[in-house]
Amino acid sequence: MDPGAAELYDQALLGILQHVGNVQDFLRVLFGFLYRKTDFYRLLRHPSDRMGFPPGAAQALVLQVFKTFDHMARQDDEKRRQELEEKIRRKEEEEAKIVSAATAEKEPVPVPVQEIEIDSTTELGGRQEVEKVQPPGPQATVKEMAPGSEEAVAPGAVAGAAEIPGEPPALPSISLPNNLQLL
């Protein structure tokens, strides 16, 4: 039967299927029709019989048609599976290209460095320190001592430990004349 011709009956068969509500009852209607209106279930008993099928022929015919459409369904399933795998593979390749392009375009960003100069000289000629502060992380703070200065360890601190900036040194007090006022 021509596949296009089979589609001519789709509306009638869909109407029956919708009316009965499930495939099992649809098959009962179909085989009931074959039983009532055809010689599908009649057996040829004598060579002179003009209607019916030889024993087992009707059953073999149903099984053959079933196997034909079952094979087509398996091929369709395999084709859909392959298309889905191909679609997934193409999507993964596209994502990999995007990631590799983004990685290739990415320029290395230098680590930001902030330099703070502290001049803490007092009347006694204290130390001068230049401290380079780097962002938090595994990198340590780098200190450079100005020439002629000496490094002092605060009381209670461990020598070589990183220093945390404290309060700025107090300014010397200035005595103001009585008629001068501060703003």
From TrEMBL:
Residues 148-165 have a biased composition (Low complexity). Residues 87-97 have a biased composition (Basic and acidic residues). InterPro entries: NudC_N_dom. This is NudC N-terminal domain-containing protein. Residues 9-67 form the NudC N-terminal domain. Residues 87-106, 122-183 are annotated as: Disordered.
